[in-house]
Amino acid sequence: MIVDADVHISPTEGILVDELLRRMDRAGVDKALTWLQPPYVREVDTSNAYVYEAATRHPDRILGFGWADPNLGVDKARDMAKKCITEYGFYGVKLNGAQNPYYIDDPVISLPVIEEIARMGAVLAFHVGADDYQRTHPFRVAKIARMYPEMTILVVHMGGASYNDLSREAIEFAQECPNPVLIGSNVRDISILSAIKTLGPRRVCFGSDTPFALMHVEVAKYRALLDGEVDEEGQADIMGRNILRFLGATA
């Protein structure tokens, strides 16, 4: 089974769910962890509702995940996180300090939202990239991981998302903290392999960053990358079983 751990859809920008399903079929991807696609017109509610609709229509393919933007108001972001988890039944909520923008460990803007996600026992995801390294630097994720050691944290792009690369820093803090999970999307292949060799195949997940990358090409890249480097069990973990396990989702 292949599960893509980084996919975006939107009712107003980018691709719709039907196009996503077409790409999944072409790539041989069974399920996709799906959140909204930026940029959005300062309207998170509509996009989260669209992800919910997609997950409801295609429960065997779409794993719904929420999004919160504290720049729209901390109370509003907390309410949206709560709605995503309790009403929509999403696995968790993603914060993107590069897109929105804000420091992901800001005690006024971000941490109250994170505290709400932790209180509800949900998974937290961060965009962690060198495209806005000051706001989304891996050391900020490490601080949060130590504050909430029981919360699973998805480290999306594992410090990539740019010609520069902070993957080494992401791998180093993941060695120290057991709760972060690295999503190898929009990051160099050699960085992905380094993470696997350092952390083991059960801490790294395949992700394509669709539609910002071609899903079928990313699947082929991972197959070539893992061939001869990771055994069949490890490949199955990376390509799908890990993210299902961390989400508590069924195959």
Describe the protein's architecture and organization.
The structure is a single chain. This protein is an alpha/beta fold and 251 residues long. The chain has a single domain (3-247), classed as Metal-dependent hydrolases (TIM Barrel). The chain has ten helices and nine strands. It has helices at 17-27, 44-57, 74-87, 111-119, 133-136, 138-147, 167-176, 189-199, 215-226, 232-247, and strands at residues 3-9, 31-36, 62-64, 66-67, 92-95, 123-127, 153-156, 180-184, 204-206. Strands 4-5-6-7-8-9 form a six-stranded parallel sheet, sandwiched between helices. The chain has a three-stranded parallel sheet with strand order 1-2-3. The model has no long low-confidence stretch (mean pLDDT 95).
Q: Any chance you could write out the topology, listing elements then pairs?
A:
Blueprint lengths: L2 E7 L7 H11 L3 E6 L7 H14 L4 E3 L1 E2 L6 H14 L4 E4 L15 H9 L3 E5 L5 H4 L1 H10 L5 E4 L10 H10 L3 E5 L4 H11 L4 E3 L8 H12 L5 H16 L4
Parallel strand pairs: 1-2, 2-3, 4-5, 5-6, 6-7, 7-8, 8-9
Helix pairs in contact: 1-9, 3-4, 7-8
List the main descriptive attributes of the protein structure presented here.
6-stranded parallel sheet; TIM Barrel; 44% helix; alpha/beta; single chain; 3-stranded parallel sheet; 251 residues
Task: Based on the coordinates given, report the CATH architecture.
Answer: Alpha-Beta Barrel
Radius of gyration from CA coordinates: 16 Å
Helix content: 40-55%
Quick one: CATH superfamily? Metal-dependent hydrolases
β-strand percent reads 15-25%
Neighbour order of strands in the largest sheet: 4-5-6-7-8-9
Secondary-structure class = alpha/beta
Total DSSP E strands: 9
Shape: globular
